[in-house]
Amino acid sequence: EKEKLHRIASHQSITPDGKSVQLAANISSFKELEIALTSGATGVGLFRTEFLYMDRNRFPKEEEQYEVYASVAERLGSESLVIRTLDIGGDKQLDYFELPEEDNPFLGYRAIRISLVQKELFKTQLRAILRAGMHGNIKLLYPLITSVEEVRAANAILEEAKQELRSEGVPFASNMPIGVMIEVPAAVMIADLLAQEVDFFSIGTNDLLQFTLAVDRMNEEISHLYEPFHPALLRMLQSTVDAAKRHGIKVGVCGEMAGDLRALPIWLSLGVEELSMSAHSILPLKERLLKTRQQESLAIFRQLQYCRTSKEIIAHLESFLEKQE
Ligand code: PEP
Ligand code: MG
Question: Whose CA is nearest to atom 8 of ligand 1?
Answer without folding.
Answer: 206
